[in-house]
Amino acid sequence: MADHGCDELDRLMSALRVHLPGATDPLIKMTLFDTIDAHCRRTNCWRYETDIVLHQRQTEYEIFPPADTVLVRVMSMSKGHRQIVPMTTGGTTLQTKGRLVPDWSLPDPSYGYNPDKVETEGEVFRYSIYYPTYIEVDVPPSLQAVETPLQAVLAITLSNQCRCTEEDEGCGWALDPWMYERYHDDWLYGTLHRMMAMIAKPWSNPQLSLMYGKMARSKQNFAKQESDRGFTYDASNWRFPRNGWTR
């Protein structure tokens, strides 16, 4: 973590100390960690791009988020300039080859045919994510398909191993420095909401906790919209789903 990130953390801690008389720094930082974790999980604001190298006839691949982070969800998957879509449920959808539903398979056990599994090598069309560590593709990659890796966009958050201790100053968190500036108020309101909701503490204040909670949720909703629109003002939130346009 760059010194800039520590400076921004000190600014945030100073603001919290003013509102929370009597609270110790380790308790404030532990609550701040929980606030940041919930914020990242709800808004998908912290994203990481990585390549997944394919191997011939291999359908399962490990997902490796950065150190001290954990995977929240996969936002998108592409290969070259082609978007890869997730697998659907209730059968396997095959392009130009109809739809195979498992219930239609013959009951005779001598038939070793599984309509949900493809053995022929080829190009990848679908993928499934098995939380939290690996991805499975629908078609075993051919020799030509392995030439181009899969590009995954991951939403991540801090690992629980980063929770503060008495000796930890918080600067070891793997957060990008820009996040402290952009989400200063978001994390301030969220931490105050959690701290003031505690029972029988010098800083306990149910009324202010309720107010800060509403402000924090409003900030989260706005942060989620901004991350979905690529932090671009007045950008359209149109998407290209499989069943047509939605908004």
What would you call the structural class?
alpha+beta
Number of strands: 9
Low confidence ranges: 89-98, 108-115, 239-247
**Secondary-structure element sequence?**
HHEEEEEEEEEHHH
Question: What integer is the average pLDDT?
Answer: 78
How much of the residues is beta strand, in percent?
15-25%
Main beta-sheet annotation: 7 strands, mixed
Number of domains: 2
Q: Sum up the overall morphology in one term.
A: elongated
Q: Could you tell me the radius of gyration in angstroms?
A: 23 Å
Q: How many angstroms does the end-to-end distance come to?
A: 38 Å
Strand arrangement, major sheet: 1-9-3-4-7-8-2
Helix content: 25-40%
Task: Walk me through the structure.
With 247 residues, this protein is α+β, with helices and mostly antiparallel strands. The chain folds into 2 domains: 3-45 and 175-228, no CATH class; 47-156, no CATH class. The chain is 32% helix and 19% strand. The chain has 5 helices and 9 strands, in the order H-H-E-E-E-E-E-E-E-E-E-H-H-H. The protein has a 7-stranded mixed sheet with strand order 1-9-3-4-7-8-2. A two-stranded antiparallel ribbon has the order 5-6. Strand 3 (69-79) and strand 4 (82-86) form a beta hairpin. The longest helix has 23 residues, at 206-228. It starts with a helix and ends in a 19-residue tail after the last helix. Residues 89-98, 108-115 and 239-247 have low confidence and may be disordered.
Notable characteristics:
247 residues, alpha+beta, 7-stranded mixed β-sheet, 5 helices, 32% helix
